[in-house]
Design brief:
CATH superfamily of the largest domain: P-loop containing nucleotide triphosphate hydrolases
Distance between the termini: 45 Å
Mean pLDDT: 92
Number of domains: 3
Strand order of the largest sheet: 2-5-6-1-7
Order of helices and strands: HEHEHHEEHEHEHEHHHHHHHEEH
CATH architecture of the largest domain: 3-Layer(aba) Sandwich
Strand content: 5-15%
CATH topology of the largest domain: Rossmann fold
Length: about 375
């Protein structure tokens, strides 16, 4: 059998660790036509979880639309991704396809054969040229009409929704979408990993989406259940991993869902029995595989932001502005720390621990890599 652990998004039909409570609660919200803000750090499995929920809903006859806003470049781009989501899910269902074609007035689908023998779908604006905001308003209105004409529940998932704040018309985009969504008898899930920005959209009083959705944080997996899942995957493939070794493996990644799965992938490839040695070797491979990502993150930061991130990787800060911590790590002025910490928090690179109140890096493997970088410099 092949490796049971996944390096990319976990397929909807693959083994999935727990999340039974989250699945049940979020499905209930969707069926109640509630809107939800689903948030967590990157790589907690938000997208995989939502797609599983949408698979369950789809199997019951509901209509599930999914649009990814990552890297959205313009208001027109927002509108086209929404329109495409409607056509993608309906193009193989004749009655729904006809309904979508009637309702979606701002865009028309373009179907072309692709090299794999299937069909690729894109969209292009129809009718007279409109401004981006006019196009978005018409598209949202078309989706409202589509929702109205179908007798099925419609569930819409908008991944990396916070990306709309990068647009200069962000507040107008929020206003149009909020006005249109509140007129729709559908459920919307707003998903994102840049938590400060995403939650600002829905919890700042002056914003259009203020208090319009349920805030739903996705937490770390329970350590015991994650360990049992890892054991079971090794066992299914006739390899040995004790609960103690599985727990040690997961603890190396701070019980992060994505990193635990990736580390298990490398360890699985190394031997038939999981040992501390294979876990350490797997960690080396994991960190090496993530190095280009981490280097790109650092390149996008200012020197002071890098300095603060390195300090928190080396030693978490009970109080970020404490004079002793500032002097120990050479962090400069209080004003500089306040500015850098705000930027790092918006990038979801640092966070305040809910229990201790201390500040730390969000990504546990990034923190390990940063410590390794600093130790290498000291040894040279």
């Amino acid at each position: 059998m092949g490796n049971p652990f996944y390096l990319q998004e976990v397929p909807v039909d693959a083994p999935f660790c727990n999340r039974k409570r989250e699945m049940k609660e979020l499905q209930a919200y969707a069926e109640a036509k509630a809107n939800v803000v689903l948030f967590s750090p990157r790589r907690y499995g938000k997208t995989s979880l939502v797609k599983r929920i949408q698979k369950v809903l789809s199997n019951k006859g509901d209509i599930t639309l999914f649009a990814d806003f990552f890297g959205v470049a313009s208001v027109d781009d927002v509108a086209s991704r929404l329109a495409k989501a409607v056509f993608v899910i309906t193009h193989k269902k004749d009655p729904l396809w006809k309904s979508a074609l009637r309702a979606m007035k701002s865009f028309r689908p373009v179907l072309k054969p692709d090299p794999s023998g299937g069909v690729s779908l894109s969209v292009e604006p129809s009718g007279a040229v409109k401004s981006g905001l006019e196009l978005l308003d018409e598209t949202m209105n078309s989706i409202r009409e589509f929702v109205t004409t179908t007798k099925s529940l419609v569930h819409v998932a908008l991944d990396e929704f916070q990306e709309i704040v990068t647009l200069k018309e962000a507040l107008q985009v929020e206003g149009i979408m909020r006005t249109q969504i509140q007129q729709q008898q559908a459920s919307y899930f707003f998903i994102g990993s840049r938590r400060r920005i995403l939650l600002g959209i829905f919890n700042e009083r002056q914003r259009p989406f203020f208090q319009s959705a349920i805030n739903y944080p996705l937490r770390l997996l329970p350590p015991g259940e994650l360990a049992e899942f890892i054991v079971e995957q090794f066992k299914k493939n006739k390899k040995k991993c004790t609960v103690a070794m599985a727990r040690k493996l997961a603890s190396f990644t701070g019980f992060n869902p994505y990193y635990s799965q990736k580390l298990a992938f490398f360890v699985y490839e190394l031997s038939k029995t999981v040992t501390e040695e294979t876990i350490n070797l797997g960690m080396e491979r994991l960190i090496l595989s993530e190095k280009p990502v981490f280097e790109a993150i650092l390149q996008g930061l200012s020197p002071h932001q890098r300095l603060l991130l390195q300090a928190l990787a080396k030693e978490t800060a009970p109080k970020l502005l404490a004079s002793g911590y500032i002097q120990k790590h050479g962090l400069g002025s209080v004003g500089g720390i306040q500015h850098s910490s705000k930027q790092l928090e918006e990038l979801d690179l640092i966070e305040k621990d809910e229990e201790t109140g201390g500040w730390r890096p969000v990504d546990p493997i990034l923190a390990i890599w940063l410590r390794m970088q600093m130790e290498e410099k000291l040894s040279q």
